[in-house]
Design goal:
The protein has 135 residues and is mainly α. The chain has a single domain, classed as 3-Layer(aba) Sandwich (Rossmann fold). Helix content is 30%, strand content 6%. The protein is built from three helices and two strands, in the order αβαβα. A two-stranded parallel sheet has the order 1-2. Helix 1 packs across helix 2. 10% of the residues are buried.
């Protein structure tokens, strides 16, 4: 069982844009939805062979439906990784065809170093990827 009292508290003002006392609250919001690819062949020796499994394609289809029902995205960005392209193609079947698409060349983040003592916590890899894509 996880002791949730030990989890880090979420900072809802992470970007420092929350209005100060007496200031008006914003009337517009920006949603950034980060999507990880569906389940893929982890035994692949190259990126080209790391294709989605049947479960991964089903995950992408379910997610595509949820995105179409919940959000109205005005732009999407994807990486060039095979599994990301496959997931993207499935999701785009549910979104408008004229949607602007950005492409991140290569892998969105560097792989962990071979020496485990040099590894960053997983959250830092995600954060670095976020910075590379959105800032």
């Amino acid at each position: 069982m996880v002791d949730i009292s030990k989890l880090q508290h979420y900072n809802s003002n992470w970007d420092g844009r929350q209005p100060k006392d007496g200031e008006h609250a914003p009337t517009a919001y920006r949603y950034i939805v980060l999507i990880r690819h569906g389940q893929y062949n982890t035994k692949a020796k190259s990126d080209e062979d790391a294709i989605l499994t049947a479960a991964g394609r089903q995950q992408a289809q379910v997610l595509a439906q949820k995105i179409a029902e919940t959000y109205k995205p005005d732009k999407v960005t994807r990486s060039e990784m095979t599994r990301a392209k496959e997931t993207f193609d499935i999701i785009m079947k549910k979104l408008p065809k004229d949607m602007p698409v950005g492409v991140i060349p290569g892998s969105p983040s560097r792989p962990p170093p071979p020496d485990p003592s040099q590894c960053l916590p997983p959250s830092m890899y995600i954060f670095r990827c976020f910075l590379r894509v959105y800032y």
